Q: What sequence folds into this?
């Protein structure tokens, strides 16, 4: 495993060298340590925490202070990975000045090395302002969960037919605008593989896909999906690599049985003489 610290300029370099980028979300110290040790390139403190950690049905309630709180935990755990923090709903849309102050807090108080913003052409000026001030920006276009109400749910965007037909050109314009504004990478979420391939071929900065097929320069998954840490059925794009929900349930049931049966704690797990 590569031990070198991953920094912002490494991501565009990885694209030009054809080296795939692996990114995962993380929200706390232990999982951030595990993923960092495993060699994951980028850790994202995503506003998905509103759903997978807080149990909300959208990311909209997440506050900047909550993202900072979780980013600090991940920053303490991270040695090698690049640390990116999400800018939550209404932390960057009102004005570029507010975006600068809030992004600055994520770097200053949270320890993030870059911020991620959802949106395309409409936020390009804000991305430019941040990038001009040396606050590295990762873009995020396609299925942008902060736009859940406009999209009418968490729906795939940019299909050739159906409700979002016609948005393919808009998504290409979004990607070009965010790249031109100075983003160093762009997340493509919930778009058809052929559109992701076209965008990936047309921009110089890396694309990192989630539900965007195999042609992106990198991939990102929400850690709860990767680890099977949710009750609900996964979306088609998400691959469950293990089932921690089941393993944790089994451990809790076994413990419950042992407490009720006075099996735990035994002598080995008690202080004093280890006699029967
Ligand atoms: O909030 C998040 O976890 C994200 C990823 C899904 C890219 O934005």
A:
């Amino acid at each position: 495993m590569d031990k070198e610290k991953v920094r912002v300029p490494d991501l565009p370099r990885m694209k030009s060298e054809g080296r795939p980028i692996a990114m995962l979300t993380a929200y706390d110290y232990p999982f951030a340590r595990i993923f960092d040790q495993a060699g994951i390139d980028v850790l994202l403190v995503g506003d998905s925490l509103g759903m997978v950690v807080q149990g909300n049905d959208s990311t909209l309630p997440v506050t900047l202070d909550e993202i900072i709180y979780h980013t600090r935990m991940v920053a303490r755990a991270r040695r090698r990975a690049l640390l990116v923090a999400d800018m939550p709903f209404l932390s960057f849309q009102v004005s570029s000045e507010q975006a600068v102050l809030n992004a600055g807090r994520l770097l200053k108080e949270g320890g993030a090395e870059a911020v991620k913003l959802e949106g395309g052409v409409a936020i390009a000026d804000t991305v430019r302002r941040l990038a001009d001030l040396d606050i590295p920006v990762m873009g995020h276009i396609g299925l942008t969960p902060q736009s859940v109400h406009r999209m009418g749910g968490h729906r795939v965007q940019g299909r050739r037919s159906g409700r979002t037909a016609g948005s393919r050109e808009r998504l290409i314009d979004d990607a070009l605008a965010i790249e031109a504004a100075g983003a160093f990478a762009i997340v493509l979420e919930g778009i058809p593989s052929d559109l992701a391939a076209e965008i990936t071929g047309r921009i110089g900065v890396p694309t990192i896909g989630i539900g965007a097929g195999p042609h992106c320069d990198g991939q990102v998954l929400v850690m709860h999906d990767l680890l099977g840490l949710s009750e609900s059925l996964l979306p088609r794009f998400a691959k469950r690599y293990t089932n921690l929900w089941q393993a944790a349930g089994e451990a809790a049931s076994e413990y419950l049985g042992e407490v009720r049966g006075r099996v735990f704690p035994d002598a080995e797990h008690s202080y004093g003489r280890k006699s029967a």
User: Anything to note?
Assistant: The first helix runs from residue 10 to 16. Residues 25, 44, 46-48, 86, 140, 187, 189, 210, 220, 222 surround 3-methyl-2-oxobutanoic acid (CB under 6 Å). The mean pLDDT is 95.
